[in-house]
């Protein structure tokens, strides 16, 4: 008799929505503190830590639902799926933030970046800055697919590491005879 293996998509969707909502709450918290323009190291570390924790919990939940067994390929599917779903939700929030909640977000972010850029590069001219800013505005839409790709790669790596940690194949436990 063959057992019904749980579907990785169900876990990807459930834990992806969870991670997406947690990420949105974190982003709203940053927005209320007027820190949403910053991409500081602590903010990035917290974001990655949240991703690692939720993917680990999601893969572990899949393992428990699968009678304690886990193949690396399933861990990869769940990890990438969680990252994909959560990133779609987070990017939707960013889109709403940038286009409806705070329509001048890009202008403020560019102004903050301008100050930092001129501090870091005192030989930079205003004309060079304007050319770079125009190019950046022209390709601003690229942050959505690039963010999606980076998130999926991160989900793949976290899923792989989690799979290696939690791996337990049925084949290695079935059919062994122990003699006492």
Question: What does this protein look like?
Answer:
The protein has 6 helices and no strands. With 180 residues, it is an all-alpha fold. The protein has a domain at 8-102 and 144-166.
Spatial separation of the terminal alpha carbons = 29 Å
The SSE order reads HHHHHH
> How many helices in DSSP terms?
6
Query: Largest beta sheet, briefly?
Result: none
Low-confidence spans: pLDDT under 50, at least 5 residues? none
Instruction: Estimate the global geometry from the Cα principal axes.
Output: elongated
What structural class do the secondary elements suggest?
mainly alpha
Provide the residue-averaged pLDDT.
Answer: 91
Summarize the structure.
The chain is mostly helical.
Protein topology:
Layout lengths: L7 H25 L8 H25 L6 H30 L3 H16 L5 H13 L4 H24 L14
Tags for this entry?
180 residues; mainly alpha; 6 helices
């Amino acid at each position: 008799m063959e057992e019904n293996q749980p579907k990785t998509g169900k876990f990807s969707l459930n834990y992806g929505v969870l991670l997406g909502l947690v990420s949105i709450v974190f982003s709203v918290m940053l927005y209320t503190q007027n820190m949403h323009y910053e991409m500081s190291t602590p903010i990035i570390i917290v974001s990655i830590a949240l991703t690692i924790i939720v993917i680990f919990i999601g893969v572990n939940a899949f393992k428990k639902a699968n009678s304690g067994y886990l193949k690396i390929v399933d861990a990869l599917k769940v990890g990438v799926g969680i990252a994909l779903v959560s990133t779609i939700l987070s990017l939707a929030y960013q889109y709403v933030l940038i286009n409806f909640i705070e329509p001048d977000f890009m202008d403020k972010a560019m102004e903050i970046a301008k100050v930092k850029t001129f501090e870091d590069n005192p030989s930079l001219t205003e004309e060079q800055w304007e050319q770079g800013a125009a190019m950046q505005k022209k390709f601003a839409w690229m942050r959505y697919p690039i963010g999606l790709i980076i998130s999926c790669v991160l989900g793949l790596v976290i899923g792989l590491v989690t799979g290696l940690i939690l791996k337990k194949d049925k084949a290695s436990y079935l059919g062994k005879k122990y003699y006492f």
